[in-house]
């Protein structure tokens, strides 16, 4: 499973740090899992969701890696989205509310 996780990460152009931040675990834990350590069930499911692959593919390497037949399936997070998640986690509640208000006004300028 570790080899498949490393391959999935590299195919998406992600670093271990980016994956760790997105899943709220340490980089060293991602390293250990990629080297063959048992991630535990909760992280196992998170990894499958994060990489948008089936649990069966991730665990046993069988079948299609993707749960849907959609060939245009995008990785769940881009590098920019991961950076935003990291910043979001550093913000206080007031900062988050301000950012949400600014983004909403920029995306939906005609909504009152």
- What value does the Rg take, in angstroms? 17 Å
Poorly predicted regions? none
Q: Helical region count?
A: 7
CATH classification, class level of the largest domain: Mainly Alpha
Would you give the CATH topology of the largest domain? 434 Repressor (Amino-terminal Domain)
Mean pLDDT: 84
User: What amount of the residues lies in strands?
Assistant: under 5%
The CATH level-2 architecture of the largest domain is identified as Orthogonal Bundle
The rounded distance between the terminal residues' Cα atoms is 49 Å
In short:
With 112 residues, the chain is an all-alpha fold. It contains 7 helices and no strands.
Describe, in plain words, how this protein is organized in 3D:
The protein is an all-alpha fold. 62% of the residues lie in helices and 0% in strands. It folds into two domains: 2-77, lambda repressor-like DNA-binding domains (434 Repressor (Amino-terminal Domain)); 78-112. The protein is built from seven helices and no strands. The termini are far apart. The mean pLDDT is 84.
Write the layout of secondary structure elements.
Layout lengths: L1 H10 L4 H8 L3 H8 L6 H11 L3 H6 L18 H12 L2 H15 L5
Descriptive terms for the model:
2 domains, 434 Repressor (Amino-terminal Domain), mainly alpha
């Amino acid at each position: 499973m570790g080899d498949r996780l490393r391959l999935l990460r590299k195919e998406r152009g992600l670093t271990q740090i980016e994956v760790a931040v997105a899943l709220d675990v340490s980089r060293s834990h991602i390293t250990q899992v990629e080297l063959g350590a048992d991630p535990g069930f909760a992280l196992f499911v998170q990894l499958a969701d994060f990489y948008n692959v089936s649990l069966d593919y991730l665990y046993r390497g069988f079948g299609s890696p993707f749960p849907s037949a959609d060939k245009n399936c995008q990785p769940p997070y881009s590098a920019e989205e991961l950076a935003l998640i990291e910043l979001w986690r550093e913000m206080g509640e007031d900062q988050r509310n301000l950012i949400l208000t600014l983004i909403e006004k920029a995306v939906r300028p005609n909504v009152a």
